[in-house]
Specification:
alpha+beta; 60s Ribosomal Protein L30, Chain: A; Phosphoribosyl-aminoimidazole Synthetase, Chain A, domain 2; seven-stranded mixed sheet
Chain lengths: ~325, ~325
């Protein structure tokens, strides 16, 4: 392939598209089962319940400290399967790339995506590329669908949550949101701030063996506060969060204070929020803290019955309380 | 939902996005198994080999005679499973919608998409929406991944094709390409030209019972000529097509002559090309001709050994021969 930039002909089903698929996608996503000539491919699966999830990715900039849109597309979809209690096995990949996009940048992103699939132990089973006309489409959008297997009969979900249950988070929140914002805005504040984008599979698998695990979710768009509101809305319970217990890295806190963001509403891409029975709290925290991605895991809140409209309530370090409202205006669009 | 146009807040994970999902997507795509609050959903499947396929859709205009991007996204993915010999069961849906897009138009397209899922007997198991900044992204892009089940041990594919095999097409070619082109260019030539966009599932299921079925494909981007080249490249056989036998509707032929297009390179979205053993030809044609979508099914070519570089060769009505070269420059970008 001699071209340096993507042209409309790379999306037309003909020779240029075949070369792009063979020489770029198939080379990085080497999968002996991937038949690039087939309309649909067989995906051998172990026994269990089949789960699917899907996500689109439009993050800007496409590359940022700690990750890029390619790795994010894998982590995001792998993580949605992981928090549902499934082991991810396959992904499908849709690429929407703008005419004129630099092929070297596309290759860098596809190579990063491929690395993320190897880390998570998933194979790209099928893919498709469409070329968008120049000036339409901010360079590159991705969509990934994941297929995973969950142990049959596994009870996990918001329906399992009870009053008295505890809420845990696997690590500091807001890193991804702040890292992408700083990469975008070029405040010259970057410092050591990196996205937390990573597979959460080790974190979720560590909890699957623990009795009393009720629910897991990865706080992405809308952050921890949005997960808190989802729990409240689905269960009708009050969620009491203790701000002093919620891990937020010092540079994230500093940037948020300077710019007026609330870290509880900023996206993470490598964290897990879990709800567990009270007696499972210590075991779950201990299991997480043994893992590289869980050393700062913390108990951050408790669920209780309410007589009013159920709310997510944050106790501040000074002893006050404020309601974590559902997100309306987005502080940071295009974060994933 | 009181908004008339999509805003960035509809993609941010908060209240506006939840309302868009609940009041527009979930309402049209009513699926009792679809849990809009879950990260990943279980998809019960009958026994058999699990197949996946994925496709992106960027057609312009979004609505055209005979279809729209919503129906096309379903047909395209259902059809890829169908020609692989699978029965489609589930889709995932990714929506990339531009800020400022009219919600009434989005609803029309989602309703059409929902109708197509009901026709094909598939359920949307998971979805995701991202909002693109105004001026980026031509209104709406879709990506769909399909999951289907194929009878175990079914041998179907380019590897099964042999010299002497016959090539059939289920109906006239080029309708979709010409219909979209005319809708786009507003030549005032529309007449009765409509896209052939439809599920091909009845056509593929009619052939699955026939001994000697080797391979099926739906000729989309790049048209019949591109499928011919794929067969040639994968088998190393010459493919002899007889132009006089290839069904092309009269108005499609007239528009192509006027504008200098070759209908053999134009996309179809509801046709099947099948390769069958010689003795299966009559049975396959008879099975197709009983179906509403197959009344104009035809035998159009034969495969043979070659001593040279294998080629797709078209015999013209005047007795001449020309090679159908692999597509390079796209006559009609953004056709699907």
């Amino acid at each position: 392939m001699q071209d340096t930039h993507v042209s409309l002909a790379h999306g037309n089903g003909g020779r240029y598209m075949r070369e792009l698929i063979e020489e770029l996608f198939a080379r990085h996503l080497a999968n002996p089962r991937l038949d690039v000539d087939a309309d649909a491919v067989a995906i051998p699966l172990p026994p269990g319940d089949v789960l699917v999830t899907t996500d689109g990715f439009t993050v800007q900039p496409l590359e940022f400290p700690g990750g890029d849109i390619g790795a994010l597309a894998v982590h995001g979809t792998v993580n949605d399967l992981a928090v549902a209690g499934a082991r991810p096995h396959y992904l499908t990949l849709n690429v929407f790339v703008e005419e004129g996009f630099e092929i070297a940048a596309l290759e860098r992103i596809v190579a990063s995506l491929a690395r993320a699939t190897r880390e998570a132990g998933v194979a790209v089973a099928a893919g498709d590329t469409k070329v968008l006309r120049r000036g339409e489409g901010g360079g590159l959008y991705l969509a990934t669908t994941g297929v995973g297997i969950r142990e049959p009969g596994r009870r996990l979900g918001l329906r399992e949550v009870r009053a008295g249950d505890r809420v845990l988070v696997s690590g500091p929140v807001g890193d991804h949101g702040v890292a992408v914002m700083l990469a975008r805005e070029q405040f010259g504040l970057r410092g050591d701030l990196r996205s937390d984008a990573a597979t959460v599979l080790p974190l979720t698998e560590a909890l699957l063996g623990i009795d009393g695990l009720r629910f897991m979710r990865d706080p992405t768009r809308g952050g921890l506060a949005t997960v808190a509101n989802e729990i409240v809305r689905a269960t009708g319970l009050d969620l009491h969060l203790d701000e002093a217990l919620i891990p937020v890295r010092e540079p994230v806190r500093a940037v948020c204070e300077m710019l007026g963001y609330d870290p509880l509403y900023l996206a993470c891409e490598g964290r897990v929020v879990a709800v567990v029975a009270p007696e499972a709290t210590e075991g779950a925290l201990a299991a997480w803290r043994e893992l590289p991605g869980g050393t700062e895991a913390a108990l951050i809140g408790t669920l209780s019955e309410t007589r009013n409209r159920a709310r997510a309530i944050l106790r501040t370090p000074l002893g006050g309380e404020r309601v974590l409202e559902e997100l309306e205006d987005d502080p940071l669009p295009r974060i994933c």
